[in-house]
Amino acid sequence: MNEIKESLRNIEQTYKIFQQQQFTFIAALEHTRENAHDKIKPVSSIGQVQTYMDHHCNNTTDKRILQMFLNICCDLSKLCQRLESLHPGNSTTNTLLEKCKMLVSHSNDLSTIRAKYPHDVVNHLSCDEARNHYGGVVSLIPIVLDCMKEWVAHTEKLPRNMIQSVSGEYSSPERRAFRQGAAGTGLTASGQPTFLTAATQTSYNLTGLPQESRRVQKKPQVGPGRAVGKLLDGPWKPPGRHAF
Length: 244
Fold this sequence. Notes:
Blueprint: H1 2-19, H2 22-35, H3 46-56, H4 60-86, H5 91-103, H6 127-132, H7 135-167, H8 172-183, E1 194-196, E2 202-205, E3 210-213, H9 224-233
Antiparallel strand pairs: 1-2, 2-3
């Protein structure tokens, strides 16, 4: 997923450079459409731009900006293929992906699509240009980028939702029962062992967090210490008066 997001960021950076040259792009389309004697119908597909560049482009500036547009569209198409192979998706992500694939198809009709706020690419055109000629072709890339970012956002939520469903598996009464059962086994509610310190008489788990206080019962002394104590007390004497 990180590679997908990195590729998407790279395409966005390239598109920002392209967007700054929108007037150059429109001028190139004007020149090539005039050379093709095709100034009546709108620019309605990626394949149409490809044809203009391949057969009706006479200068390097026009060819450079048209090639830049086609390269971005090609990168978006390749990214669609990677998205499709990355995750099986659900109904939402599949719908978004199908929309992206349709938009970047060379034969898809772009004449009716329009990028809306916050995108302002259509606002940089005249009313005639926006309505009858270039409104669709300038709206293509920002719309596809938005769809892909939405796809990434939905896909990243899928594992998180699964984690939330697992974490919400225990209700409050069940959590209390689990804690009570853990207290009798010497475990914390998280399943970690506890230990007691004689000095503080406080129970700690392995994370160092104090638990409820418990009294420490003193065990009878066993081992060598008890034997040494017997020797110091001397032999056993019956009750009563003694000379020593």
